[in-house]
Amino acid sequence: MTLKQEAYSMIDSLPDDDSIQFFIDMIKHFNSVVKKNAKLSEKSDEISEKRQAFLRMEEMKKTNPFPKNYDYEKVREEAMGEKYGRFN
């Protein structure tokens, strides 16, 4: 007996239409859960790619740290001056 034949015989053995409807509802619910899990799996793959990129950046920060006396504000001001200085 194949798997389909076994499923059909199980459905045929259900006592009434309510049982068959319940069985159909269970299958529909199961299918929706499977689809949801597939979408979550795709999303987790995307997240893991982003996570890997983040970890690579963190590793680069460790191997190439900024100097202790690095002045973020000064660098920002210089960059703003280069880009927008002609408008002042």
Quaternary state reads single chain
Shape field: rod-shaped
Strand residue content = under 5%
* Largest sheet descriptor: none
Whole-number mean pLDDT: 83
Structural class: mainly alpha
Q: Report the end-to-end length measured between terminal Cα atoms.
A: 85 Å
Number of distinct beta strands: 0
- Radius of gyration (CA) equals 30 Å
Uncertain runs are: none
- The topology string of helices and strands comes to HHH
Q: Assign a percent range to the helix content.
A: over 70%
Total of helices: 3
Describe this structure in words.
The protein has 3 helices and no strands. The protein has about 90 residues and is mostly helical. The longest helix is centred in the middle third of the chain and has 47 residues. The chain is rod-shaped, with a radius of gyration of 30 Å. About 0% of the residues are buried. The model has no long low-confidence stretch (mean pLDDT about 85).
Which key features would you list for this structure?
mainly alpha
Can you describe this structure in just a few lines?
With 88 residues, the protein is mainly α. Helices cover 80% and strands 0% of the residues. It contains 3 helices and no strands.
